[in-house]
Amino acid sequence: MARQARTIIPGQAMHVMVLGNNRETIFYKDADRRIYLDWLREAAKQFACSVHAFALMPNHVHLLITPQHVDSLAKTMQSLGRRYVQYFNQQQGRSGTIWEGRYRSSLIDPDYFLRCQRYIELNPVRSGFESSPQGSSWTSFGSHISGTAETWLVDHEHFWRLGNTPFERQMAWATFVKEGAPYWEDQQITEALLRSKPWMRDVYAQKLFKNNPEQVKIRRRGRPKKITSIISMA
């Protein structure tokens, strides 16, 4: 069966996930996570991707990335994946792939960007590894509420709209993440990602995919409301 073509629009954010083969561990220690992030930064810079958010879990990774060219994301992920496999196999004295197939990716509606970023940064909490987003050292949440952790991350324009100063944006973001997300929203994001389908409003999908509606079709169980609560805090 032919591979399904990825939906990529240069300049528009993508939710990306890579899984360990058979859900096996891909990060055994902090040094593994550190080197993965460093190589992600280098690959993203080389192949023109802006990285907005991340969550490094024991057996999988979530990323929020905006590719600048059609092939930027593929080149970034391929370079990072191959480099990390070599390092991991050398460290563990093994051979072969550590990834479960291709990475998953979902094109994100700009109006849903902040919700997707929240989903990623709450992943350790949702998975039961942490009791609060502040408890994880290996997500981008710390960078978004302090501005000092991973300074190479690129804030999306929707994040900038949260406030006129860094402090206002950090406080607004902390409040939004603390509110959490409804169950149906998490389910929509997860389903779209696992099926490599876009996650977006119906009206936006009809505009982008009017000639190929099947490319985005997923039966939805609800519709996100506008994020007025945090924008009004700016």
Description:
A 4-stranded antiparallel sheet has the order 2-3-1-4. 42% of the residues lie in helices and 11% in strands. It has 234 residues and is an alpha+beta fold. The chain has one domain: Transposase IS200-like (Alpha-Beta Plaits, 2-Layer Sandwich). The C terminus is likely disordered. GO terms for molecular function: DNA binding; transposase activity. This is Putative transposase.
Provide a compact summary of the structure.
It holds the Pfam family Y1_Tnp. The protein is 42% helix and 11% strand.
Characterize the biggest β-sheet.
4 strands, antiparallel
Domains (count):
1
Rg calc:
17 Å
Beta strands, count: 4
CATH topology: Alpha-Beta Plaits
Strand order of the largest sheet: 2-3-1-4
Strand proportion = 5-15%
Q: How far is the first residue's CA from the last residue's CA? A: 49 Å
CATH architecture call: 2-Layer Sandwich
Helix/strand structural class: alpha+beta
What is the fourth-level CATH superfamily?
Transposase IS200-like
